[in-house]
Amino acid sequence: MELIRQGLIEAVRLILTGDPGVLQITWLSIQISGTATVLSLLLGIPAGVALALTRFPGRGFLVALVNTGMGLPPVVVGLFVSIFLWRSGPLGALELLYTPTAIVIAQFVIAAPIVTGLTIAAMQQLNPRLRLQLLALGASRWQLLLLLMREARLPLLAAVMAGFGGVISEVGASMMVGGNLLGHTRVLTTATVLETGKGNFEVAIALGVILLVLTFVVNYLLTWIQQRGRSA
Amino acid sequence: MTVPILEGRDLRVHYQGQAVLDVPQVVVQEGEVLAVIGPNGAGKSTLLRVLGLLEAPTAGMILYRGEPASPSGSRGLAIRRRFASVFQEPLLCDTTVRANAALGLRLRGRPATGAETQVQIWLERLGIAHLARREARTLSGGEAQRTSLARAFAIGPDVLLLDEPFAALDPPTRDELLTLLQTLLRHNGFTTVFVTHDRNEAIRLGDRIAVMMGGRLIQAGPPLEVFGRPATEEIARFVGVETILPGLVTKEQNGLLTVEVNGVKIEALGAVTVGERVFVCLRPEDVVIRRLDARSILDSARNHLPGRVEDATPLGPQYRVRVSCGLPVIALVTKQSFDNLALDRGTPVVVSFKASAIHLIRR
Q: Does residue B312 share a domain with residue B202?
């Protein structure tokens, strides 16, 4: 118990004094996971909308693939991204391994199926007859898509939250493709693992608390947007 | 002959190789209310979707003011924007009543100020102006359908397409909305195609009635013609003819026909000849019942058949009475007459009906 108490006190001190090392790691985590989430939204939302609203041969297979991807173990993603970015690997010439970009790529691979899968679910829970009604009201193709997405905005925001939550908390892939290099690729999760390993529990607890607060703030904001005007 | 505002030619729709619609021609004239009736699964809604350019037919074409039109492309969109549809479900968006009512205008990029006046007018006409700021998801079924109607009317459509808009409502709400719609259509002269399986709704709203069965449009005409002179036994049953009996035309004298049904002779009018096999159709409201022991013969009816009451079913203000007189005849009797006549099971009665009340369909 003493360990936890001391850890919490140290954590509060580190946060309140704005320890430069901790701040740097936090900021890098936000940048990397934020970028990966935005990229996964750019791919996942259009892909999910398309998979939800169209019918074509092989669609069922693709949806099953996406759903499988939602449960992709981060270490497996880390392994394959590492192989691709390895010096002798297919993309080795880009020299991306052990850079923040490599982590963004790995986190994108983890988040994209989550966003796509939840987008499919969000769009499919709409009344299928609503499409016909909107077309009948004179909606063009783009107007139809925008209106349907607006109707599905609550579950779509859940997709954003799940995507961000999936990558900000992920550690295996970031460790493997980032290398946990201080000041370069060390993020909140990998730093927590390292500090725990070294027995620096107070620093590890501080990092853990920051991670929790960060996740909470982002999700609180998204929830607030989602639930606005939902009091009725 | 003026060019119809909307016309379908040789329309066929197949789903997985199965024909669900086969209509050689359907015409909607400007300003009329065409009520399309038929049982569930008759293809009415499919016809409406095809006419509204919401679904491409497997074969055939749609003409809008004489010009071919198809659902695809910018021209399809431009024509579709001259239509407005209301479906059985209100299908409102998750926003306020006012925003919902304004949606059609917004999709057409109308300037907000003009749209606002238009929306306000229709919210008032539909009696939901006080709900304008309410979230649509909190509305009752009737309020939601009023919003859906306001959304369609606000567009000021050339053609209004209504697909069973009242089918999901409770009877008092349905009746109230039907009366309101009747008034609005009459005052504003909207060309309307109104699909329903309820013949009473069709009679109240339709200038012309089209009957669909099994994907085919089998009769179209003014309500009196369709309801009084149904073209087939199937239509007769659907439009509420309760007595339909097979008979044989045995005699013709001065235009008056004698038809034998089950050995009973019935006098009728019709364009059939002696020796033809026919269905004798008689609407229950055209039958008069009196007790056998009553003195006077009250009317000028040519047919008087003695029989006995078999059973009586109360239908609100009326009774549906089945009389057996060598052949089964069904009559509608007001509750008051029913009580006055003291009609019990087995009561000896005489059923009377005019020769002109009989409609003959060739078998």
A: no
